[in-house]
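Predict the assembly for these two chains.
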Amino acid sequence: MTLQNARSGLTRRQLLARSVAAGAALVVGPGFIAGNDAAWALETTALKPETMATLVQMARDIYPHDHVPTEFYVVAVKGYDTPEAAPGIEAGIAALDAAAQGKGFSSYVGAGWERDRVDLLRAMEDSAFFQKIRGGLVTGLYNQKAVWPLFGYEGESFSQGGYIERGFDDINWL
Amino acid sequence: MVAKFDQTDSSVVVIIGTGAGGGVLANELAQKGVKVVALEAGGRYLPEDYVNDEWESFGQLAWLDPRTTSGDWRVARDFSGLPAWIVKAVGGTTTHWAGASLRFQDHEWKALTTYGRVDGASLLDWPIDGAEMAPWYDRAESKLGVTRTGDRPGLPGNNNYKVLEKGALALGYKEVHTGRMAINALEYDNRMACQQTGFCFQGCKWGAKWSAAYTEIPAGEATGNLEVRERCHAARIEHDDSGKVTAVVYFDAEGKEQRQAARIVCVAGNSIESPRLLLNSASPMFPDGLANSSGQVGRNYMRHVTGSVYAVFDKPVRMWRGTTMAGIIQDEARNDPARGFVGGYELETLSLGLPFMAAFLDPGGWGREFTTALDSYQNMAGMWIVGEDMPQETNRVSLNSEVKDQFGLPAPNVNFSDHPNDIAMRNHAYKQGMAIYNAVGATRTLPTPPYPSTHNLGTNRMSENPREGVVNRWGQTHDIPNLFISDGSQFTTGAAENPTLTIVALAIRQADHIAREMSANTL
């Protein structure tokens, strides 16, 4: 379940050659997905890689931040790749794909526009599955210390002596 | 020389809870030579233990025992198991509080007289008034080192304050300043000055903010008259055949049931736990719970009219830098029914870190309307509304017999619905808050719903008439002379101000009363 740097395993070209596009992620092979740019990769153990790829896309569609790389969304949902969690996730994603097919798409990630995918999510937003994923993302995504700088948030400041000499009142545009 | 009292020593005063009420009372009594055993459900955390991390700190300090909610407030939907954001630790919620230390306005002690009868509200005058409380407020401000009181200067304003101030002045507001805060602008009482670190809600790592955890408690312990038993959860209060309380039964850190004898019991467990303890102490003599002949225990739960306004600008604010509650607008705190509601409200700066902003900006919200707001997180400014809510008998803490805590005790249920006056006030405050930020060029404003309650008030209210409340002018229960309430649950009405200073002033005054009555042998 570790997030791998793809460059330490397969080469970028190997990855891309072996993969099928699945929304924000590529299904590279059995038990293995990677970012479209091969900047990250994840081995799945309990979930089907297609399921994980769809889950990552769903996470991005729930909390879309265009400046946040997909690897942070992967970190936010990879905890579901366990034998205990997997059956519920597989069922939830299967329902999502079925709903997409009902609307004429090949699958959830097969819907190319975010608007279409969000419509599918809106239709299921009261479901336990959707609320579990959404609720988990609130901490799973936004409580990653590595994601904070992408929003400008500086985190703890005590170790640096607070902001008394580091700009607590430095606003200059008022 | 920390005291250690025998569990059978029936000469001690037992205080349940060590926050703004119980912690202050414990120290004040100990200073007067009274022997005190303080039972604290939480552990002891000091500045070196606090963490500048919202969720980690929440896990360390928050009261997370099972609780349930009902009523039409949004908290019951979005945070159904977390009606209140308060602390389980030595020092109680004084570790978490922002530090705002405001006196009630004189008319707020007499809400019924001032506002008149309000349909659906159980308004009542306090049996005490501003003149009587003035000297106790003086002592409380001095104890807490409140800025802009005595000869203490104000804190400097941070970025978030500067935005608020400019917008407020543009709207014509006059009472705009960096607050009266129990946060040192200069070194005071052996505590250092504020370093503008932020994370006031997570416990002040400098000790610049007053907290009972590292002021009252060690000061009381140093007298040799105070024993604090931490991780001890009060389960019920026992009484004798004459109806006087005699002991407190509690679960210790190992979960073992213990009993401490008492001459006097003072309950200061916050407005959810205090009525719960009285209700859980029901006996054949008091089948509806202790001190509940009026049926008022648990009723009139108040939480202040709250809400936040965040605003996005086209340039950075970085509101998290520095004091969390860095300034205030007081012009709307007056009572002016021409605005469409009685009572008033304060507007105070507030900031949340990114993790809590994601959780509280629009609970349950998702999609681009939500995420584009967070994308501008560093360009946000924020304020909090705190106004007087109407007491209502049906807003109440009661026992949920279907949900038990880790000790098998019925959990508290908190039922709350807004009164129409509350809604009118909140909408007025949202409108003013958004206008303030628009006046400084906000590109987007976000009227944000109330968080789980931090100001929990009124469930054992003070009344002149024993049939209308639970305690008298001293916080002494009408029914049982040696049983006192020492926290915010004794509030008759909530006023517009953050409650801690008033809780502290009442505790200092109550200690004086109890010590006097003990020496006179009338207690």
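Chain A has a mean pLDDT of 90. The longest helix of chain A spans residues 86-102.
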